[in-house]
Design a protein that fits this description.
about 450 residues; alpha+beta; 5-stranded mixed sheet; globular; binds glycyl-adenosine-5'-phosphate
Length: about 450
């Protein structure tokens, strides 16, 4: 993890929040390469959910919602972690994360001091809206994006004439006052989720649950993730969230071990029933194709962390390799083997020399390609060193402009993964990149 964290900082993927003030725990800033990577992951998920599914539409609901939402959802009552403090060193622990022998002896795992009794700690951030700071102005930062979908479900049925089964997808920020925020961007207080809620007829929920498990697994496979680093984990009775009838996590083998990446939940009719009760509004679906049959739909949820996916993709892509290619200064390289459709930079144009019109020619090629691709231009230093810099940024293609380019209009296309170099006519570059991205298969 240290290597990934240090590369992320060095190359401008992720910075500590408010670093000049000593940093803000649980918050991170995405730098130039990081924001591109995060946006591409979100776009890929959005395309998968909305463009490739005729029955799923998008939504962007607000972070601030009516406080009754969180009473109805059960978060005010149930969204808690068990906590204890050490009376001596003042460290705060999630008691479900400390060894059983310490817990039963009420002994601090850090300093051996006495632990307080375990108490429940609600993870929602509270703030106040308006000028007064009293209980009437209390408002929460949403701890999941899902509730914004549930409260809009009727609006979307009416405005978009949706018929069950159908889904609503959303990407957005969520906030949790997490006590343990180690492991870089894995668990943070401010993060982003990519959630899709699929509304189905009661009785068909188990079938749809199995179907969505299959679809989400296939998605990661298509994204080129190392499938031996993914596995399923079914929630046992003690792990199930208060709303779930059944839940499976897709876990990824992160540098610190197997951890949850995404959850697929059968939320039943819990949420819509509770919103019916708390809002007093009728949230039944009326099936006009079936004698106006009325029912509260069941909901199958797929809930992935976007920022957690960034860490997964960075970990999955990270590689160190012994190499012996021409122009190389040492024989090790660090390379991020991103799928080309996720890479922050798709291609880097590198003139072999600044002089003799090569830089100008390379600029022309960059201008041509940037309409379609994220293109970098690098003039500085030996070509081998420039390749290394692009390998570290995960750039799948380097285009080198040399003296032959001036004569016959060809350039060298260098592949990040194999380091193979081929000559390609400049006029065919855009098309060639398109093909390479489409047919990309990770080999290492
Ligand atoms: N709506 C259901 C829900 O929020 P969850 O299992 O609590 O379920 C879903 O969260 C996903 O959100 C997780 O699989 C994880 O990827 C991400 N996530 C949850 N808490 C997070 C945190 N504190 N920091 C980063 N990502 C988080």
């Amino acid at each position: 993890m240290e290597k990934i964290t240090s590369l992320a900082k060095r190359r401008g993927f992720v910075f500590q929040s408010s670093e000049i003030y000593g940093g803000q725990n649980g918050a991170w800033d995405y730098g130039p390469l990081g924001v591109e990577l995060k946006n591409r992951i979100a776009q890929s998920w959005w395309r998968e959910m909305t463009q490739l599914h005729d029955d799923i539409v998008g939504l962007d609901a607000s972070i601030l919602m009516h406080p009754r939402t969180w009473e109805a959802s059960g978060h005010v009552e149930n969204f808690t972690d068990p906590l204890a403090d050490c009376k001596k060193c003042k460290t705060r622990f999630r008691t479900d994360m400390i060894p059983e022998e310490n817990l039963s002896a009420k002994k601090c795992p850090e300093c051996g001091g006495e632990l307080t009794d375990t108490r429940k700690f609600n993870l929602m951030f509270k703030t106040n809206i308006g000028a007064a700071e009293d209980s009437a102005s209390l408002i929460y930062l949403r701890p999941e994006t899902a509730q914004g979908i549930y409260v809009n479900y009727k609006n979307i049925i009416q405005s978009n004439r949706m018929k069950i089964p159908f889904g609503i997808a959303q990407v957005g920020k969520a906030f949790r006052n997490e006590i343990v925020t180690k492991n870089f961007i894995f668990r943070t207080c401010e993060f982003e989720q990519m959630e899709m809620q699929y509304f189905v007829k009661p009785g068909t929920d188990e079938e749809w649950f199995t179907e969505w498990k299959k679809r989400r697994w296939a998605y990661y496979e298509r994204m080129g993730v190392r499938m031996d680093h993914l596995r399923w984990h079914q929630h046992g009775p003690d792990e199930l969230a208060h709303y779930a009838k059944d839940a499976y996590d897709i876990q990824y083998l992160f540098p610190m071990g197997w951890r949850e990446l995404e959850g697929i939940h059968n939320r039943t009719d819990y949420d819509l029933n509770r919103h019916t009760e708390y809002s007093g509004k009728d949230l039944q679906y009326i099936d006009q194709d079936n004698n106006n049959e009325r029912y509260i739909p069941y909901i199958i949820e797929t809930s992935a962390g976007l920022t957690r996916n960034v860490l997964m993709i960075l970990s999955d892509a990270y590689d160190e390799e012994k190499v012996a290619d021409k122009g190389n200064e040492d024989d090790w390289r660090t390379v991020l083997r991103f799928h080309p459709s996720l890479a922050p930079i798709t291609a880097a144009v590198l003139p072999l020399m600044k002089k003799d019109g090569l830089a100008e020619l390379a600029q022309e090629i960059r201008q041509e390609l940037k309409e379609e691709y994220a293109v970098d231009f690098d003039l500085g230093g030996a070509i081998g060193r420039r390749y290394r810099r692009q390998d570290e940024a995960g750039t799948p293609f380097c285009i080198t402009v040399d003296y032959q380019s001036k004569e016959d209009g060809t350039v060298t296309l260098r592949y990040r993964d194999s380091m193979e170099q081929v000559r390609v006519p400049r006029a065919e570059l855009a098309q060639r990149l398109r093909q390479e991205i489409k047919s990309y298969k990770r080999v290492k």
